[in-house]
Amino acid sequence: MSTQIFVNLPVKQLDRSVAFFTQLGYSFHPQFTDENGTCMIVSDTIFVMLLAEPFFQTFTKKALCDATRATETILCLSQDSRSQVDEIVAKAVAAGAKTPSAAQDHGWMYQHGFEDLDGHLWEFAYVDLSAMPQS
């Protein structure tokens, strides 16, 4: 079995977060969905657990980070083309996300991202290893 990753993110309003990510084209695992959280399917090996803040808090004694005021992490996902990067960011903005910075084009790597409804930072990158500068 391949290694899988389950990223856990606290969300203020679960239904609102599900609606947002649905607009970006993601689906959710019904067996892992209830009023406390849901399992967003990114790929066969990548999942994001969107957990209502009170439920998320049961997993840690630490205070939750307010991602609208402080950066906790940046989640970066690869895409197959520059146009796919632009497409997902455009969908996110149309669904209510903010873009904290402009797209970055390094020639061999193109990236852009958004801040979701809870302030979590998402980056999407297209990397062309054949165009990567040789050291």
Outline the structure in words.
With 135 residues, the protein is of the alpha/beta class. It has 2 domains: 1-62, 2,3-Dihydroxybiphenyl 1,2-Dioxygenase, domain 1 (Roll); 65-135, 2,3-Dihydroxybiphenyl 1,2-Dioxygenase, domain 1, CATH 3.10.180.10. The protein is 21% helix and 36% strand. It is built from 3 helices and 8 strands; from the N terminus they run βαβββαβαβββ. The protein has helices spanning 14-23, 53-57, 82-94, and strands spanning 5-11, 27-34, 37-41, 46-52, 74-78, 104-105, 109-115, 121-127. The strands form 2 sheets. Strands 1-4-3-2 form a 4-stranded mixed β-sheet. A 4-stranded mixed β-sheet has the order 5-8-7-6, with helices on one face. β6 (104-105) and β7 form a beta hairpin. The protein is globular, with a radius of gyration of 16 Å. It starts with a strand and ends in an 8-residue tail after the last strand. The model has no long low-confidence stretch (mean pLDDT 96). Residues 5-42 form the Glyoxalase/Bleomycin resistance-like N-terminal domain. This is VOC family protein.
